[in-house]
C-alpha cells in the first residue's frame, strides 16, 4: 500500500503543479532530507491531493505514508536537478503544460465558487421544490391472511375490542409488518398493490375497510392511519449535490464565454469523439467555425 500511495501522490502532485512548500516555515518539522526540512504544513498540503487510500488506516498511518511520499519526492527531484533535467527541453514543455493545467483548475474553481452563491443555491432549490408535483402518501396498516375466512375472523376480533396492532401481531402472515402492528409506513398509491390502493382511495383516516381486500398475496384487513403530502428533501440534504451541479454548469458557461471573447483559429478538422465519450468539449458544425 505504501508504494501505491507514493505513486498516486507523485502523479497527483505533478498534475496540479502547485508548489508544495509555500507555507510559512514556523511549524513543526516532520522529516529531514539532507539539509532540507519537510514541515507539518507540507504534509497537510500534500494530504489534500491523496484523498483516503485506505479507510481502515489510522490517521497516524496515513500521515506516515504522506511523509514517506514527500521524502521520495524530495530525494528523486534532487537527483533530477543534479542530473540537469531542469534544463531538458521536454521537461520545460511539460512544466508549461502542467502550469496551465493548474492555473485553469484554480481559476475555474474560484470563478465557479463566486458564481454559485448561497442565495443562488437557495433560489434554484426553491424553484425546483415549487416545480415538484404534489404527491400524496398514505400510512397503512394491514393484516395478511391466506383466506377470506381468516381475514373475517381477524375483523371480528377487532370489532370485539382487540386493537388492530394486537391482532396483526398475532395472526398476520406478513412477518415484517406484524412486528410493528401491521404498519407499512408511508407509501404512495403507486407503491401499493392496486387492489389495496383502490380500497384506500375512498377511506377516511382511522377507518378500517369494511371487508377484506383480496390481492395475489392473500386477503388483507386494511386500516388507513394517515394521509399527507410528501415533503420535498430538505435543503441541507441536497445542497451539496445541487451545488456540484450548478458549479459544473457555471464552469461550462465560464469557458464558453472566455472562448467567445478570444480570437481562436482551429486548424485541424473538428472530428467528434465516439458516442459515449466525454472529452469536455462540444463538436460539430459550430465547433468548426
From TrEMBL:
GO function terms (MF aspect): peptidyl-prolyl cis-trans isomerase activity
The record ties this protein, via Pfam families, to: Rotamase
Gene3D superfamilies per record: 3.10.50.40
Per UniProt, the enzyme's principal EC class comes to isomerase
- Write the signal peptide boundaries: 1-22
In terms of domain of life, where is this protein from?
Bacteria
Q: Which reaction is the catalytic activity of this chain?
A: [protein]-peptidylproline (omega=180) = [protein]-peptidylproline (omega=0)
Q: Does the record carry Isomerase as a key word?
A: yes
Question: EC number(s) on record?
Answer: 5.2.1.8
Q: Which UniProt keywords apply?
A: Isomerase, Rotamase, Signal
- Do you know which InterPro entries this protein is assigned to? PPIase_dom_sf, PPIase_PpiC, PPIase_PpiC_CS, PrsA_foldase, Trigger_fact/SurA_dom_sf
Q: Where is the PpiC domain?
A: 135-226
The cross-references to PANTHER family, in alphabetical order and at most eight, read: PEPTIDYL-PROLYL CIS-TRANS ISOMERASE HP_0175-RELATED (PTHR47245:SF2), PEPTIDYLPROLYL ISOMERASE (PTHR47245)
Family note: Belongs to the PpiC/parvulin rotamase family.
> What is the designated name of this protein?
Parvulin-like PPIase
